[in-house]
Amino acid sequence: MSFSPAMESAFNDTKLRSDKIAPCGGMCSLCTADCPGTCEIGLSAVLGAAAVYPTNTGNNQIAGEKNIPIDYSHFNINGRVFGAAGADPNGDCAAIFNVKLGRTIGTKNPVKLAWPVILPAVIKLNWKDYFAAAAMAGTVCVIGEGAQTKDPKLQYGADKKISFFPMLNDMLDAFRRYYRGYGQIVLQCNTDDDVAGLPEYAIKECGAAAIEFKFGQSAKGTQPANRLKTLEEALKKQEAGVLVHPNPSLPATQEAWKKGACPTFWSYGRLPMWTKEYLTARIANLREMGLKNVYFKMAGFDREDMETVLRIAAAAEVDMVTFDGAGGGSGYSPNKMMNEWGLPAVCIESALLAICGKLEAEGLKLPALALAGGFTSEDQVYKALAIGAPYITAVGICRATMAAAMVGEKTGLALSGGTVPPHLKKYGAAKDELFWELPELRGLYGAAADEMPTGAVGAYSYLKRIAFGIQHFAALNRKFDVKYIGQRDVIPLTADARSLLKGQWFD
User: Fold this and answer.
1) 21, 182, 413, 471: which has the fewest C-beta neighbours closer than 10 Å?
2) What is the residue range of 175's domain?
3) Both 192 and 321 in a single domain?
4) What are phi and psi of 287, to 5 degrees?
5) Burial degree of 382 (CB within 10 A; 0-12, 13-18, 19+)
6) Number of C-beta neighbours around residue 105 at 10 A
7) Does residue 410 lie within any of the structural domains?
């Protein structure tokens, strides 16, 4: 059988004409002469190189479609009836409601997390409510790379450094407005952002306290290429310091453009070529400016690269490194890259156990680690915390949290218009009746909770479901503090699962 999707995809609205598929290549087994070309091959016949990228970005989220042959479903969660780690061993104290979920990360400036989840980088769709929900939940959220491109008022100075980016304060304030002593909002920075002076601007002009340097993500191991439609657009991008291919400044290129014979213009994000020497010096310099916390974003690259990132993080006293597993993705990610590259999150964990053990044996002080990559439910989060113990501190949930924010927003709009989504009518017809976590938010924020956007309430409610579910599984294993969760809390159901736990899956 093939684990890869056939030559059709949701992110391009492409479809195969037949349900009879050639497994090895994913084409229809019978390719007819009169087919209009509705599949990926047909789209490529029209769009060419551009078909490498999804055409359904915009107001959508995108994830991989490959049926990865190993994931967290290969494990079940263990259970116990004796003992009570972290609580008095009696039925009144040892209850699901008393499972402690808090974690603390940080080297120089500790950051408390109310729940062992984080919200990874995004800056699209309903980002305001996404960041607000992170503050309500008391956890870390990350503003996605290239955030300045979202601001129509963005300005660069003569040195091609960012000189005016007012929307950044809106992004930071979305979290700050509901900050309650837990969590942090972090600004992600890729190579182009660094070249443009985004960290300096964020710290000096907006009071940003945390930066995440990005090496890659599960769906986008390289930086994206974006098609530019005109010579003027290509020149404008190049003047702003962006890499553009072919070079629009060359007379030969401009002459070819006039003749309609110029290859497609592409802007291209610089690949991270960071070194230990550069990053340690850069981080030290930013800390002198007032930066409090530093994060890294890493994907399932070669295991040597994973080890190198952790060595750099240890040397620079980075607060947390997030490893993003294959299968996730929400932005402008190449189609096949989402499906066919990188380690799934559960495999990253297996590699990290060996790497972290090696580095600790050398005496290195490791940063906190987070794991992301397609997580949507509390059982997956619990399994990830168990398999990655004692190194995985938190699990990142991006696309699902954004989906909850979008649904919460849509539900609020429906209510304000005097209607109730049909599938929700059985729960009530008013905001208080439908959003069951509102009373808890009033307890945290007082009357201000009544003015909270329903998108933020929706995302918070979804995260509360995750947290409550973790408490159930922890109590099932008689662990009344998440710090006690360990590998014996999961049961491997397959030979691959057993190999992962033993660190032998890569052998």
Assistant:
1) 413
2) 72-221+272-402+467-502
3) yes
4) -65, -35
5) buried
6) 22
7) no
Backbone angles phi, psi at 365, to 5 degrees: -95, 110
DSSP 60-114: ---------S--GGGEEE---SS--BTS-SSTTTSSGGG-B--EEE-SSS-EEES
Nearest Cα neighbor of 328 from 302, 300, 356, 364 is 300
Do 309 and 212 belong together in one domain? yes
- In this structure, what DSSP letter does residue 159 have? T
Q: What distance in Å separates the CA atoms of residue 251 and residue 272, rounded to the nearest whole number?
A: 30
In angstroms, the Cα distances linking 350 to 152, 312, 340, 388 are 44, 20, 19, 7
Neighbours of 195 (CB within 10 A): 14
DSSP codes, 190-235 = -HHHHHTTHHHHHHHHH---EEEEE---SS-SS--EEEE-SHHHHH
**pTM of the predicted structure, to 2 decimals:** 0.96
Overall domain count for the chain: 2
pLDDT in tens, the chain (507 residues): 789 999 999 989 999 999 999 989 999 999 999 999 999 999 999 999 999 999 988 788 888 899 999 999 999 999 999 999 999 999 999 999 999 999 999 999 999 999 999 999 999 999 999 999 999 999 999 999 999 999 999 999 999 999 999 999 999 999 999 999 999 999 999 999 999 999 999 999 999 999 999 999 988 889 889 999 999 999 999 998 899 999 999 999 999 999 999 999 999 999 999 999 999 999 999 999 999 999 999 999 999 999 999 999 999 999 999 999 998 777 778 889 889 999 999 999 999 999 999 999 999 999 999 999 999 999 999 999 999 999 999 999 999 999 999 999 999 999 999 999 999 999 999 999 999 999 999 999 999 999 999 999 999 999 999 999 999 999 999 999 999 999 999 999 999 999 999 888 887
Sign of CA dihedral 271, 273, 279, 281: negative
C-beta atoms surrounding 355 within 10 Å? 21
Q: Are residues 258 and 284 in the same domain?
A: no
CA 160/CA 201 separation, integer angstroms: 13
Q: Partners of 274 in the beta sheet?
A: none
Question: Would 412 be classed as within a structural domain?
Answer: no
